[in-house]
Input
Amino acid sequence: MLAFAFKRFLGAWPTLLILATLAFVLVRAAPGGPFDVEKSLPPEIQANLDRQYHLDEPLAKQYGRFLAGLAQGDLGPSFQYKDYTVNELIATGFPVSLRLGALAMGVALLLGLSLGVIAALRQNTFTDYAVMATAMTGISIPNFVMAPLLILLFAVALNWLPAGGWEGGHWKHTLLPVIALSLPQVAYIARLTRGSMLEVLRSNFIRTARAKGVPERWVILRHALRPALLPVVSYLGPATAAIVTGSVVVEQIFGIPGLGRYFVQGALNRDYTLVMGVVVFYGALIVAFNLLVDLIYAWLDPRIRY
Amino acid sequence: MSSVENIQTMNAATPGRGLWHDAWLRLIRNRAAVSGAVILGFMALLVIVGPYLSPYAFDHIDWEHISTPPDLASGHVFGTDAVGRDLFVRTLYGGRLSLAVGLAATLVSLFIGVAYGATAGYLGGRTDSVMMRIVDILYAMPFMFFVILLMVFFGRSLVLIFVAIGAINWLDMARIVRGQTLSLKQKEFIESARACGVGSAGIIARHIVPNLLGVVIVYVTLTIPQVILVESFLSFLGLGVQEPYTSWGALVNEGAQGMESAPWSLMFPAVFLAATLFCLNFIGDGLRDALDPQDR
Output
């Protein structure tokens, strides 16, 4: 297990390097610089700015500088938010996004798993159909449609909850964003769980367990659940990516001061370092999470050794 | 003599029920999928001919009806937006674009994915592991962020949307196709083709790819809604199509901004977008149940 974990850990580094390189190439290939303004700057000032941010150096050297910074965990100064480093911006935005994302992920897992198991146990009954219909709704209504609809209903029409803002993560301000962000994932996880649970319940070892007289509750919890969880565990990687991406628009809609908003602003302002920093940061996060998922998967299913 | 005739008449009376025929029967028995297909067909028709039925052009500004609620008398069936453009026509125009992007980008991902997956699976060995390792690495990339960057830096062109979205979605397709190819290439008919001297390219194109059709059709139907979603996501962020052209995502965005005073401008595009995704997902599920019975 330890050797396997180590091998996987080593395997993640090339991915990160490619990620950083892609981000660098893309940003540098873009037409237009960070200091393009309506009237062009005097050449001396332009040259000074370029020198300060090392934009006058050959690309290879800039790339080396970028990688060396990354190795030390330094993402450089922001081009637009003067006096701030990208690290500082991420440090302010990320806790907010993390809280939102973790809550959404928790809700998605808890609700998705239980709904999926219930639907599988009551296959082809009204409960099953109701859960699956709800899941279909969750999949078919994207979160940027769900979010304004939720605001329209709960904030504008009923006036129960605020339409936006964060207020340090007060539950009234987190409830709607978390619902909008987690609903599609609840739906996917419920469908996955139901499918794999049905398959497991049909297998021989479940029949054996029942024949032995194991109480139904134990059959489900101890025998069926573990193998049925495997597809869900492997979906956690894509789910994280979806929640990270989704939080970009959800933060935008609800006016939440998270990292997603910095990213969109940075991209629109051509804030090279900020944009690269966020892409690398989120990329590293997703890679790390995928690594974790691989390990959980191997732990749950001892047959997996590669 | 008579028994032979009997057999012949029997054969004539019951035409062979092949895999595709069975699948078709299973599909049309699936009520959700059939209603999804019917509604989607109706919607496609509406999106194509609908704009000609309205007296207004999609970029016509009606100064006398700015931000008015749905009203039959003035001909603005869905009302107008904040600058007085007819929402019925704009919703349908947006639909044209969303559906077209969905189809085109799915085709891009279909071609790349099938070619890549079938090649990797058929050649096997080291080529396969290198090719799939590349897919693994690309899989771990936060692609949505790269697409956003592309849109911002290189301007918002439709072609770029097609390419960007298609380029993301081929990864899943390649994985699925490779898996199928791995099992297909063990089959006897592939061996016999090889024995007859057919080259690798010929076997992939003539024997492997046609047998992948079932899986690929299912996956394509499930990719279209994903692609539409990505496009509307980009348009929602203001990175998709440019004014005066529009798509469902852009309309939802405009509607969300003015929803407190003009909720209809959010509701109509939102309903159209969600309904389309619903139908496509139902059809995809139905097709999967029909073509891939062991997956139920």
Chain A has eleven helices and no strands. The mean pLDDT of chain A is 80.
